[in-house]
Amino acid sequence: MNTKELIEIEDNYFINTFTRQPIVLDHGDGVKVTDIDGNEYIDMFAGIAVNALGHNHPKLVKAIQDQAEKLIHVSSIYYNEPALIYAKKLIELTSFDRIFYANSGAEANEGAIKLAVKYTGKSEVISTIESFHGRTVTTLAATGHEHYHEPFKAILPKGFINVPYNNIDAIKEAITDNTAAIIVEPVQGEGGVNIPDMDYLKEISKICKENNIVFIVDEVQTGFGRCGTLFAHELFDVKPDIMTMAKAIGGGVPMGGILATDEVASAFVPGDHGTTFGGGPLVCAAANAVLDVIYDDDLLTNSKEMGQYLKEELEKLQENHDIIKEVRGCGLMVGIELTQPGAEYVDKLREKGFLINCTAGNVLRLVPPLIIKKEEIDEFVKALDETL
Ligand code: PMP
């Protein structure tokens, strides 16, 4: 079938949820993906920050193949080695004590909110405007986009308060005796790559401690090296009570998780929470490989260095293009805010062989694989220069 025929299948048979780009991707290798017509693209979007190692990294592929041959899944009433090994390895790299395995970012955030509510016995959650925490009913309420709420207002749970991002006074005003948690992205992704002031997360952490509120960081998009450190909150020198993760954790297999301190985690007892697929051997074998490659190949350094390089090159472009309002970046999570809507530039760049996306209407978002090299960045910046 050709591209047109395949896309018609979606038009005819899928529930209409996504506005997709009109290409059918077939295979990937490193920073490149190829569509079924043989067109090659430099993937500056990496499945929204999922493919940290690049596409089809041989060590990730081998780990998945080896595990698939041994054991793909077991019920969560049994132990499996990859899940146990991974938990110890990851926790030793963080300030947290305990893990729960989920399957997606939304599911991780659902669990985090339940844990905070159970721990505090309270029922209000403060989140930020322009934040994104998921599409399930509870995480939708936490997500700070009014237009996503609108059709579902009747069923959204009460107790969710969205306050402006990077604004401590707004948080202080929103706190009540019934506040269970504050949930924030260390850097807002869907909201347009918004980087807060250096002391924002620290202030939140302090307020949470003073008021016995659970501090949740959503690292679903920023985690696993995206911002140049394993987790972005490390940049702001804070120790949250709960962290949620997904996307890059499994390098492309559906996986998510919650990390929590011993104190907060102790609120859950058997029966409070669970999942069929979370922490299965196949996805945990993948996660083990991802974490190993991040350190073996020093991808945190590459994220930092290439992120800085990309940002600098874009800032040079800004001098010649009035349409660029601002360049924002944190490692290899970079946003180019335009003075006008960005969708047409996404299309034009795709036609030139580069995949990016536009978020918040006018921010071109770049989240390439962490293995990206200078030459590939140069190619992209040249194409963007011509396009603008
Ligand atoms: N949190 C953040 C910060 C996200 O960016 C996303 C997805 N864009 C989610 C949660 C939801 O993740 P998922 O799509 O895996 O449910």
Automatic annotation (TrEMBL):
Listed pathway(s): Amino-acid biosynthesis; L-arginine biosynthesis; N(2)-acetyl-L-ornithine from L-glutamate: step 4/4
Gene Ontology terms: biological process: L-arginine biosynthetic process
Residue positions binding pyridoxal 5'-phosphate: 105-106, 132, 218-221, 276
Keyword Glycosyltransferase: no
Cellular component terms (Gene Ontology): cytoplasm
E.C. number(s) listed in UniProt: 2.6.1.11
Gene Ontology molecular function terms on file: identical protein binding; N2-acetyl-L-ornithine:2-oxoglutarate 5-aminotransferase activity; pyridoxal phosphate binding
The keyword Protein biosynthesis is assigned to this record: no
Subcellular location: Cytoplasm
Cofactor(s) named in the record: pyridoxal 5'-phosphate
InterPro entries per UniProt: AcOrn/SuccOrn_fam (IPR004636), Aminotrans_3 (IPR005814), Aminotrans_3_PPA_site (IPR049704), Class-III_PLP-dep_AT (IPR050103), PyrdxlP-dep_Trfase (IPR015424), PyrdxlP-dep_Trfase_major (IPR015421), PyrdxlP-dep_Trfase_small (IPR015422)
Annotated catalysed reactions: N(2)-acetyl-L-ornithine + 2-oxoglutarate = N-acetyl-L-glutamate 5-semialdehyde + L-glutamate
Modification type N6-(pyridoxal phosphate)lysine: residues: 247
Cofactor: record remark: Binds 1 pyridoxal phosphate per subunit.
Binding-site positions, N(2)-acetyl-L-ornithine: 135, 275
Swiss-Prot/TrEMBL keywords: Amino-acid biosynthesis, Aminotransferase, Arginine biosynthesis, Cytoplasm, Pyridoxal phosphate, Transferase
Similarity annotation: Belongs to the class-III pyridoxal-phosphate-dependent aminotransferase family. ArgD subfamily.
Quaternary structure note: Homodimer.
Other comments on record: May also have succinyldiaminopimelate aminotransferase activity, thus carrying out the corresponding step in lysine biosynthesis.
HAMAP family: ArgD_aminotrans_3
Matches recorded under NCBIfam families: argD (TIGR00707), PRK01278.1 (NF002325)
Name of the protein in its database record: Acetylornithine aminotransferase
Origin species: Methanobrevibacter millerae
